[in-house]
Structure formats: C-alpha cells, structure tokens
Design brief:
The chain has 160 residues and is of the alpha/beta class. It contains 6 helices and 5 strands, in the order E-H-E-H-H-E-H-H-E-H-E. The chain has a 5-stranded mixed sheet, with helices on both faces. It starts with a strand and ends with a strand.
Length: 160
C-alpha cells in the first residue's frame, strides 16, 4: 500500500537519513475528505446522525484538523497493483492474501486524487522495480531528491 516519507521542516535529507533503518516513514491517513472539509464517511452517515451529534463532530473535526502538522513534502511510492500483489504474496501475511485488486486500485486513486486536489508538494516515485534493501542506488536517488527544493504540486522520480 502507498507509503509516504515525511521530512521534518528545516532538515536536510542526507543528515536526516543515514541508513534505510533510520528513515522516518509514516502511512498517510486515508484521505477521505470532501470539499466541505468533512470526511466523506461522515457525509455517508450524516442521515443517521442527529443534528446535535453532527454539529459536535464537525466542531471536533475543525479543531483537530487545524492542529495537524503538515509535512514539507510527501514521497509517494507508487507501484502497479500487480506489483503490490506480488509483494503481498512474497510477504506471506495470511490476513493480506485476499486483498482484492480493486481495493488496492481504489486506495491508489484516492491518494493520488487527494494529493492533486490539495496541491500537496509530493515526489511521486515509480517504485515498480524498487529494491531499497538490495540496491543502494534506489534509496540514494530518493535521498538526493529530498536534498532539492520543490514548488508546491507533483514532481516525478524514476529510480535508476
């Protein structure tokens, strides 16, 4: 599933990342946000919530959302669903084996649409053939990319 590396403000990547074991990796929250600022899940259950509960949720959401720390840049590792399924099979976790292709594709679409709609500064990495443990050049390419300055929006990186 998609993963994002988050670089804290003011840090140079080469100083921050000394080896693959020290990379700060966080999974982005599932971006189910609609234009109203409320999660789409809430929009779906809205008819089932009394007005006072809905208003309470909306106030809490607004308070929490304002306090969230936003990354300077997101590194989005993208691989085709077929490759994700190969990785799942190789990892051999029983609870992952029946994840349908449609679900993985849906997650990818949701993340990429969210990133584009919100103009998040993102480096999309084609991870189709990535091997961060076996090929040091792949990790180094990302480290080098993080040492550059980027404008808001999407940027693309192909691994060597």
């Amino acid at each position: 599933m998609p993963t994002a590396m988050i670089r804290p403000s003011g840090c140079r990547a080469s100083a921050l990342i000394s080896s693959i074991s020290s990379i700060s990796v966080a999974t982005l929250p599932f971006p189910a946000k609609v234009s109203s600022g409320l999660p789409s899940a809430l929009k779906r259950i809205r008819p089932n919530l009394p007005d006072d509960e809905f208003r309470l949720y909306q106030r809490l959401f607004d308070i929490i959302h304002q306090q969230l720390v936003h990354p300077d840049i997101v590194v989005y590792l993208h691989a085709p669903v077929q490759k994700l399924q190969q990785n799942i099979k190789k990892r051999n976790r029983p609870y992952e084996q029946k994840i349908p292709d449609a679900y993985l594709f849906s997650i990818q679409e949701t993340y990429t649409n969210y990133i584009r709609q919100h103009n998040i500064k993102t480096i999309f990495v084609d991870a189709s053939n990535a091997d961060f443990f076996g090929n040091e050049k792949h990790l180094q390419a990302i480290i080098n990319a993080l040492d550059k300055e980027y404008t808001d929006g999407q940027h693309y990186l192909t691994l060597p």
